[in-house]
Design goal:
The chain is of the alpha/beta class and 315 residues long. Helix content is 27%, strand content 25%. A seven-stranded parallel sheet has the order 7-11-6-1-4-5-12, sandwiched between helices. It has a five-stranded parallel sheet with strand order 14-13-15-16-17. A three-stranded antiparallel sheet has the order 8-9-10, with helices on one face. The protein is elongated, with a radius of gyration of 30 Å. Bound molecules: flavin-adenine dinucleotide. Flavin-adenine dinucleotide binds next to helix 5, helix 6, strand 16 and helix 8.
Length: 315
């Protein structure tokens, strides 16, 4: 049983945090009366690790791991942990470690404690001191699982030279399929997609509730249009998020954009400005949308829209 440490490198050289986690791992190993094994991925020269207390290096070389991949790296470290029967695994607080450590914790059914700043207070029970509340306080945390994963707060423990005699061995774990398939699913319920639509009928919070969308859909049907909505409408769950248009939603560049019960906030206009003709129906004559509109009807949507549908049907 050794303490396992994942040592990160960049362009063939170990990062400082890799040497810091190795230093920390040595302190833990000394407390437990065991040795330190480091896993390295695609790092040719591993000699620096011995200076920081690493007794054994498992060297993994694999083309598929030339770029960081949390799933692939976690699989490697898991197999290394099983090979070494490691009960304590030490990682840094780098962005990559933050991705892979939770996966590793799930795979190994391990307890995972982040932001640790000192060598364990005790190893039985395993108790570590960690930063909490955005470093405004610290706490002592006990890890009770059989396997423990600890991430070290960078620059907290420091580098400690140890001059161990490291042995290195090639390690060839199996690499899972790292192919990522991206599937695009358009969740819009409209028959015409917003991106392709010549005409878009869009509703805002002025429509009061999802039960009132029947007239929006009917108007869209009559015009062969797509339906859209303002952000609060989708945030409230009145309409699917795929219909949300604006700065943070889908952009609309239709020939005709009909905005019903939408105030015309700058963030909404940012997404629909490319539309050629904008028509606004709003009961407030001072609604900002009227300044951006080509045509406007000041009136109650619940009166105007049914009349519009009737006229269009008769057309
Ligand atoms: P309201 O502002 O509540 O306006 C409702 C309108 O309906 C009013 O003008 C009212 O006069 C009218 N009305 C009421 N009753 C009737 C009636 N019976 N008949 C006719 N009219 C009626 N918003 C977006 O839409 N898209 C975005 O991408 C987006 N991104 C954002 C990003 C950021 C960072 C932030 C801070 C905000 C963003 N917003 C976005 C929100 C935006 O600022 C507005 O709050 C939002 O657009 C308002 O939505 P609304 O016009 O439907 O609702």
């Amino acid at each position: 049983m050794s303490v396992l440490v994942y040592t990160e490198s960049e362009q063939g050289s170990f990062k400082k945090i890799a040497l810091e986690v190795a230093s920390y791992a040595k302190a833990v190993a000394n407390q437990l009366g065991t040795t330190v094994t480091a896993v390295t991925i695609n790092t040719e020269d591993t000699s620096a690790l011995a200076n920081y207390g690493v007794d054994k290096v498992l060297k993994v070389s694999h083309d598929q791991l030339s770029n960081f991949n949390a799933k692939g790296y976690a699989a490697v470290i898991k197999q290394a942990a099983e090979k070494e029967a490691a009960k304590v695994i030490i990682v840094s607080s780098s962005a990559n470690s933050k991705y892979l450590a939770p996966l590793l914790a799930i795979d190994l059914n391990a307890g995972y404690v982040t932001n640790v700043i000192e060598a364990p207070e005790s190893t039985s029970p395993f108790t570590v001191k960690r930063n909490a509340f955005t470093n405004k306080a610290f706490e002592l945390t006990q890890i009770n699982t059989d396997i423990k994963i600890v991430s070290i707060s960078n620059n907290s423990f420091g580098l400690v030279e140890n001059n161990a005699q490291a042995t290195a061995e090639d390690f060839s774990p199996s690499i899972p399929d790292l192919t990522v398939t991206v599937e695009s699913v358009d969740k819009a319920t409209d028959k015409v997609s917003i991106a392709d639509a010549e005409i878009v009928v869009s509703g805002g919070r002025g429509l009061k509730g999802p039960e009132n969308w029947g007239m929006i859909e009917e108007l869209a049907d009559v015009l062969g249009a797509a339906t859209a909505c303002s952000k609060p409408v989708s945030d409230l769950g009145w309409r699917p998020h795929a219909e949300h248009v604006g700065q943070t939603g889908k952009p609309v560049a239709s020939n005709l954009y009909i905005a019903i019960g939408i105030s015309g906030a700058i963030q909404h206009l940012a997404g629909i400005n490319a539309s050629k003709v904008k028509v606004v129906i709003n009961n407030d004559a001072d609604a900002p949308f009227f300044k951006a509109a080509d045509y406007g009807v000041v009136g109650d949507a619940f009166e105007v829209v049914p009349q519009l549908i009737e006229k269009l049907k008769a057309f």
